[in-house]
Amino acid sequence: MNHREDHTGPMRVLVTGGSGLVGRAIQHVVKEEGGAKEGEEWIFLSSKDANLMNTEETRAVFRKHQPTHVIHLAAMVGGLFKNMKLNLDFWIWSQKRNNVYINDNVLQAAHEVGVVKVVSCLSTCIFPDKTTYPIDETMIHNGPPHESNFGYSYAKRMIDVQNRGYFQQYGRCYTAVIPTNVFGPHDNFSIEDGHVLPGLIHKAYLAQSELNPHTQVIWGSGTPRRQFIYSLDLARLFLWVLRDYPEVDPIILSVGEEDEVSIKEAADAVVQALGFKGDVVYDTSKADGQFKKTASNAKLRRYLPDFTFTPFKQALKETCDWFVANYDSARK
Ligand SMILES: NC(=O)c1ccc[n+]([C@@H]2O[C@H](COP(=O)([O-])OP(=O)(O)OC[C@H]3O[C@@H](n4cnc5c(N)ncnc54)[C@H](OP(=O)(O)O)[C@@H]3O)[C@@H](O)[C@H]2O)c1
């Protein structure tokens, strides 16, 4: 499904989830790297501006800003262990943040105020658990997701369903990107609830501090494999999708298959980046999650053959340096 938007004139871009890991990276690219074009207006929302679970608050914030374009990042997000505990909340329930309400409110409010393009954010962890590799964009709905995060996965998959519906019935170019594991400054470094890489960084940091024994315990066997994307690379790609990607069908934003690393290799890289000198042990009584979800970036490469990703070790070093420098204020 291809669509060329007919918007002329400068964009007014509303970014939901603008205070999170990916939102802060987009802010950086827009404000510090000259990512915004002349005349454009960029508005970054946090949950303090509107609770997007609430339909009226969502409508009000869209009416107030009258965006022409939207990057939709806001979501209840978490790592393996938080997902395993709260599958229902990740789908739809309770007074907490949850994803189906947020997505439905944002897409409908965007449609109501005439937003010409929305780029929402899916994730490679929503793909079927039993699949062939590499995973590509056509496989999203091919089978059940991994049982550890079925709530999050089905909620995200429904964004793709809605995007197709808004295109079919209203000709809207509402699309989605599918990043692999994201990391970078402003991540959630919670050991319990965060993603694997920020959790590893936080643990290594604590293990080398004088207050703790000099052993870092890593949850799981260390054998699962992941592709990691630096938040700033993802932000640069988001801007390209917003401006130039013409399809309603989603696109995987990932480093190549050859850049996949095991959790053990990632942990070793963290140890190196932080200069950690102690022992590293693996607690195999903890869950590993999905063994791998190797994604193909062939579609991205067809559009952008020359895009250069920041080397993993460099990006990790920058992230560790940021965490150490901002330890007191970092989310953890
Ligand atoms: N992190 C990853 O590895 C990863 C991988 C693939 C895809 N993604 C997707 O990328 C997007 C951004 O993720 P992230 O890692 O940047 O998440 P994050 O750091 O946890 O940030 C979440 C953002 O959503 C906002 N938010 C949450 N609930 C809200 C609500 N009810 N109303 C309004 N705003 C709300 C938060 O606002 P406050 O700051 O005010 O709380 C924050 O700005 C998400 O859609 C996520 O599913 C992330």
Question: Could you walk me through the main structural features you see in this protein, from its secondary elements to its overall organization?
Answer:
By secondary structure, the chain is an alpha/beta fold. It has a domain at 11-184 and 227-258 and 293-310: Rossmann fold (3-Layer(aba) Sandwich). Helix content is 39%, strand content 14%. It has helices at 21-32, 55-65, 80-85, 87-91, 99-112, 150-170, 196-208, 231-244, 263-274, 298-303, 312-325; strands at 12-16, 41-44, 69-72, 117-121, 173-179, 181-183, 215-219, 225-226, 228-230, 251-253, 261-262, 279-283. The strands form 4 sheets. Strands 2-1-3-4-5-10 form a 6-stranded parallel beta sheet, with helices on both faces. The longest helix has 21 residues, at 150-170. It binds NADP nicotinamide-adenine-dinucleotide phosphate.
> Quick one: how many beta strands?
12
CATH third-level topology of the domain at 11-184 and 227-258 and 293-310: Rossmann fold
CATH homologous superfamily classification of the domain at 11-184 and 227-258 and 293-310: NAD(P)-binding Rossmann-like Domain
The 3D shape can be described as globular
> What is the CATH architecture term of the domain at 11-184 and 227-258 and 293-310?
3-Layer(aba) Sandwich
What strand order characterises the main sheet?
2-1-3-4-5-10
Number of alpha- plus pi-helical segments? 11
Query: In percent, how much strand structure appears in the residues?
Result: 5-15%
Q: Any ligands, ions or cofactors bound here, and which?
A: NADP nicotinamide-adenine-dinucleotide phosphate
Spans of at least 5 consecutive residues whose pLDDT stays below 50 are none
Portion in helices: 25-40%
Protein name: GDP-L-fucose synthase
Family: Belongs to the NAD(P)-dependent epimerase/dehydratase family. Fucose synthase subfamily.
Keywords: Isomerase, NADP, Oxidoreductase
GO biological process, one term: 'de novo' GDP-L-fucose biosynthetic process
